[in-house]
Amino acid sequence: MSTSHPLAETHSASGITAASQVFNALKQDLIRGRFTAGEKLAISALKSRYQVGLSPLREALNRLAAYGLLEQLNQRGFRVPTLDASELADIAHLRTQLECMALVQAFQAGDAEWESQLLAAQHRLRRADQTPGEIERWEQAHQHFHRTLLAPSGSPWLLRFIEQLHDQFDRYRRLAPSDPATRELLDQHHAELVTLALARHAGEARELLELHIHLSHQIAKGACPSEA
């Protein structure tokens, strides 16, 4: 854990609290697999890595435990959750249920502005996919696409739950071995979802989204010890 994040330098300029900054930075590092599953986190090392004091660090760690990306040990610190195939299956199932619900609502409420934003998000994702070696750029574009697709659903709570499930799911997916053939098929799904959205073919889009999550789940299972 040698890379440091100079959070204190940006605190005053951004207006974001140090606790929120370390929460966001550590959350991304957990999702990206920068820490080993089951690893107990050393407070002193985290303070050095994120260049933050003990109080905001503990606040961030408690928030991440409540979010599900860390486990709090009884008065003995925090550790990274292990990777479990049954948990991943539960996450994938809930993703399917909630995202398909949000998709139907988005198709009903989406307007011309949403269509323009969705086309722009698809273009951004396609451009990122054509830039080898810039995985973080693709990850950001991919997240933005799925957020945009469901944005008009009209339920902030539903979208909040979906985002939390995405973060949990991506922790597995990003640790799994690559599968270029399935990845290419998943990329095709993004373009097909846009076409169906513009035509408001909700039934076909729901079926495609279910398949999309199912195939993503098959890839993500490769991160689980019993599935590798």
From TrEMBL:
A UniProt-annotated Pfam family: GntR
Domain HTH gntR-type intervals: 16-83
MF term (GO), any: DNA binding
SUPFAM superfamilies from the UniProt entry: GntR ligand-binding domain-like, Winged helix' DNA-binding domain
Protein name (database record): Transcriptional regulator, GntR family
UniProt keyword Flavoprotein present: no
Gene source species: Modicisalibacter ilicicola DSM 19980
Keywords, sorted A to Z: DNA-binding, Transcription, Transcription regulation
